[in-house]
Amino acid sequence: MTPTLVRHHATRPGRMPRVDPWARARDWSEIQERMLVPLYEAVHDRLEVGAGTRLLGLGCGSGLALLLAANRGAAVTGVDASPELLDLARERLLPRPAASRARGGVRLVEGAVRDAGGARGGPYTVVTAFDPFGWPADDPADQAGRLAEAVPLARRGAAVVLAGWGPPERCATSSVLRVATKLADPLRGGAGWRPARRDDLEQVAERAGLRPDGSGRVACPFGYADLDSAVRGLLSTGAYDAATAASDRAQVDKELTEALHPYVRDDGTVWMPNVFRYLVARTP
């Protein structure tokens, strides 16, 4: 498990299946992203995010973490490569001009991390990379490179937060994510989920030129209204794209549904307890 710059819906031409980017973005926004709220809140509490905070969210997705920070009074900038997710972030963060002014300032950027520079108010005081590494398993060097791009945009000693999965034995979703790895075709470069390793976050931070400065663990259970919602939510992460390309959507749906059955409760809801880990690092 490594940091968290998951590019939710970026696909590799010729390798990934065709998907409806709007449907996927909606499923992420309406079903899956809320599972990470305990992580967002724990980090915001630890770093005392509030008025005076200038926060840069890398891979901000549909903007829920930014919204929570803005509601605390922070000025927030989010950057993501997905236009669909950013449109949903705008709906959340910029519903009315008065609301955005009350939240201290909101900026959303489509493109590379460096494009988030040049904002009014000086360098960023907090940088977050919240999307848990592991869906799909990106190259740690790529992750470190994106973090390194953010360093010049932040003040000296600014907090940079990476997040990822906790120990597999404490993450019920691990068994469900193994379906992605089992069905993916590694010979074609398919990137599936992989379990966390103890020092993943620290290694990526150090490769990015950051200094580790503490860590924490947060319970982030995944709860869904029913099996259909669970399948849609998990598919929205992109973790199963390589599996779908190597087999087909029907096969992935079938095996994913079977893997979820042990977590279906008597009322039909799906509940999977998980623990996530975050690392606080500092810019040089």
Give the termini separation. Answer: 24 Å
Radius of gyration: 18 Å
**How many strands?**
9
**Order of SSEs:** HHEHEHHEEHEHHEEHHHEE
Biggest sheet character: 7 strands, mixed
Could you estimate the helical fraction of the residues in percent? 25-40%
What topology, given as strand order, has the largest sheet?
Answer: 3-2-1-4-5-9-6
Mean pLDDT: 86
The 3D shape can be described as globular
Provide a descriptive summary of the structure in words:
The protein has helices at 21-32, 37-46, 64-71, 83-93, 97-102, 140-150, 173-183, 200-207, 227-235, 241-246, 249-260; strands at residues 54-58, 75-80, 106-110, 124-133, 154-165, 211-219, 222-224, 270-272, 275-282. The protein is of the alpha/beta class. The strands form 2 sheets. The protein has a 7-stranded mixed beta sheet with strand order 3-2-1-4-5-9-6. The longest helix has 12 residues, at 21-32. The chain is globular. It starts with 20 loop residues before the first helix and ends with a strand.
Layout of SSEs?
Blueprint: H1 21-32, H2 37-46, E1 54-58, H3 64-71, E2 75-80, H4 83-93, H5 97-102, E3 106-110, E4 124-133, H6 140-150, E5 154-165, H7 173-183, H8 200-207, E6 211-219, E7 222-224, H9 227-235, H10 241-246, H11 249-260, E8 270-272, E9 275-282
